[in-house]
Amino acid sequence: YWSYVRRISLALIQRSMGLIQGLIMGLFGEAKLAREKKEHEQALRTSQQKLSAGSATEQDYVNVGRFLKREKRYNDLVTLSQEAIGKFPKNWSFHYFIGHALLDQNSDHEAFISFESALEFMQPHKTKYVGYLEEAEILVLMSICKQTAGEISLALELRKKALEADARMNHALNLRHTFG
User: Could you tell me the pTM of the whole model?
Assistant: First the structure.
């Protein structure tokens, strides 16, 4: 049963992310997104080169981590993230990446701990509406970990917090759209 619930919850997250991307496309325009995609691909190539040369910055690690997560190369993602945590221990992204990989491996307790660390390190840096989106996603993933473990009341509490974070993100998007 919990395996089914997990699959449904992950599918809902992916669907929500697609809907949000559609909203962002509507707000910012397809041309801007195409330009940003091209810039992102160039930044990824540069980051990969810097990693190979041993001269990578914190952002280079994040860029490559996002790529590995998107490609579901979780073993490589864990290796990269552990190396990055050794250099940049307070960057929430690397804890988030490890949590994703652990959740994929059904290591729910360890994933939950990684997601908790990600939220802790995210708080001081959450200044843009995107931070709220990521916070909501992490809270939902944490609730999946607890739901699978049979801790339903904690899972529901985490879902409630995710909805609150989502509402803050929507409010911030509305303000951005209104005041540009």
Answer: 0.68
